[in-house]
Amino acid sequence: MKKISLLVFLIVILFSMSSMAQYNNLWIPDTLSGTTFNLTIKDTFSQLRTGQQTITGGINNKFWGPTLFVNKGDTVHMNVRNSMNDSTTIHWHGMHLPAVMDGGPHQVIPPGTLWQPYWKINNLAGTYWYHPHLHEMTFEHITKGIGGFIIVRDPQESALALPRKYGIDDIPIALTSRRYDASNQFVLTNTTYGDYMLANGTPNAQVSLPKQYVRLRILNAEIERGYNLGFSDNRTFYIIGNDGGLLNTPVSATRVKLMVGERVEILVNLGANNVGDTLNLKAYNSNQAFGFPGGEAGISGQFGSLLNNVDFTVLHIKVAATTANPITAVPSVLSNNIYWTAADATLSRNLTITGGQAGSNQPFVFDNSAFSLTNINKTVNLNAIEKWTVTNSNVFGHTFHIHDVEFKIVARNGIATSVGDYESGWKDVMYVPRGENVSFVAKFDDYSDSIHPYMYHCHFSNHEDDGMMGQFVVKDNSILPLNLLSFSVIGKGSTVELNWAVANQLDSKAYIIQRSSDGKVWSDLEVINTTDTSNQTNFQAIDYSPMFGINYYRIKFLDKNGDYTYSNVKSIQRKGEEFDCRIYPQPTKSMLNFLFNDPAYQVYYLKVLDKVGRTILMMPRPILSKGLNVSQLPSGIYYLQITDEKTMKTITKQFIKK
Amino acid sequence: MKIRRCIYLLVFLVITLLNQTNVFAQIEKKISNFSLRNVNNKQVSLSDYPSAKGFIIIFTCNHCPFAQLYSGRLNALNKKYSALGVPLIAINSMDSVLYKDETFDLMKIKSKKNKFNFCYLQDASQMVGKDFHATHTPQSFVVWKESGKWIVKYEGAIDDNGEHAKLAHSFIAKAVDELLAGKVVSRPVTESFGCKIFYRKG
Looking at the complex, does the CB of residue A635 fall below 8 Å from at least one CB of chain B? Predict the structure, then answer.
């Protein structure tokens, strides 16, 4: 036993010595900014070791992808082209956006296809990321190196005296590790933890940082390993941001645990150092409680690695000269977030981590139910504030990530004060250690879609691929306003009958029936005067000449104070017309125009396919008012698959490109 | 009785010894003859080369960035070894329906552009790729003629450095040299990697 541990000790020393032998400059990802982003996902190769190149995957690059700078409030348009051999998806991790733009397992991008999602940046300034999310292939695609940072800017954060010179005093660092085989290729089977660090895809990374306060945006982009981060001289640093934005006040620390999927923004002062000094950002992963991913003993095999249960360097830092306008202090106040508390939640849900026992064939899943693409696990009401508790009375730690929202962790093991200061901000990933339960509160607002779900899952991509995932839809079951109990429209021959009922006539002055052809411009059809002393509760109105196509109706409630509000909108199609459209001109050289039989159409999805049936273009909620530019397509016959938002009916049309 | 047992033991030992000489080689695959269309529109089969001692078969394609590094080296290999009776044949088993970059027309353009001096065949049905168990591009095989059959003697990477041809040690050249000298291939299998070849179901 002693001989073996001596041998292991010597091997570890040897390896750690060889890895300290030569440093490579940390690759700082290139940046894209503005509102249109072109991302090409490709199979490629990188020189990560001496000798043969390693087959990798990158976005516009040989490994990893560009950092996207976006502004809160802007609507961003993504042009995501999949040039790989395999289908994939790109998920915008942490972004609050419509489910159909989310890039989860349901938005598969086949090889050669262009996907064009767009959404309004609602998130607070912070560090987010994008990465693949194809079911059962996420582990492989993330291992290949596909991913990138998203940095959101907002006026509030920009007004703070924080380091903000990207690549100079504001550095993004993606932490990951890899195991290699004899041909320098990434090992993809029977492995959980890499043997060699890669920071931004750089082996043995070093970076020069100026002699002042610097900001590190650190992401754990691993498969499973957690990082117990600290500096080689144990100096104090300041946590200023969690997954979803700035903390209200900085939290000083000498260690911070960063688990898979999480981001942390820290400030560290190099002002007291001399130019030429060196220090290391390290993972102090030795002697962690059992269940800490990466703490398992063993230097090889499925659950061991050269970096398990040891303290190792993540990034070598060299102190360089101060820059102009350095940051010299940590702001005492960062933000004024008002967080949810457990009391705000109107509904509680519980998830239990089951399975995963050694020797059994059962993978880790939630509630004994493996993920299924066709099964919606939960339905959440739009605008609901819910508390979710994830219980892990199981053998190992996990991280939990939910799409769509940023949440507030409100309790660990039922105790509010057990939630760390370091994780007290808005988050979208939380560490669920072995033997603990963790609760968060989130509001599911703005976006509802009864078809495309959002996901929740363990962010260990191997667990996720094996079924430790579920999905939820956010449904708009909004309560009707102003005591409206019911409102219905029914076609009767060539007329439309509207019926509505109210609970009482409190403050009522008039009901105005309004009609629209497009759901945007409304005209008054009929005014029914009433008084608040009337006992009448049921009302009816008749539209004697509804328009051809879709008629939208709503009731405008006028109260005696002059205030008004609207009912929900009901629609009815004048009989004989189905969702259809005309495409012109045929054939076309550049633009394709759409004439829908109903001018108030809303297209949910549009796909362009070539004559062989390959998907060329995927456009969720496309804006077609100015037509579709097809000038870039080679000449030939193409098909359009158009899905209607209201009925979810899909029609296929053909067009010829000259 | 005793003699019989000795004979059985002897036979067993001989067979084991014979198997031992193949211990470095994996199971030696037999390859069927095939007839595939070349970029010059003519059909090409292994049986078109009655005097060939063997073949270098490279599975490659149009769009894979790693495979694209090897065009020059494939020309060099064919130039040297076809003169020695071991021609090089390149085969594209990528699904041309799934990948619009892999059409026959684009194969013609690539062959012209990279001045291929060897046959570049389209395996439209993917049958040949399946026969070889080709998994990636680029992936190389050396088949040798033995008793009228084609046996795989080497499979794996072309060499050990994709990006830097001058630094590369060619596995395939070494294997062919050893076979031409009547020797056993010292390293019959190396790891294949590159762009995955997806086979259509059925």
Answer: no
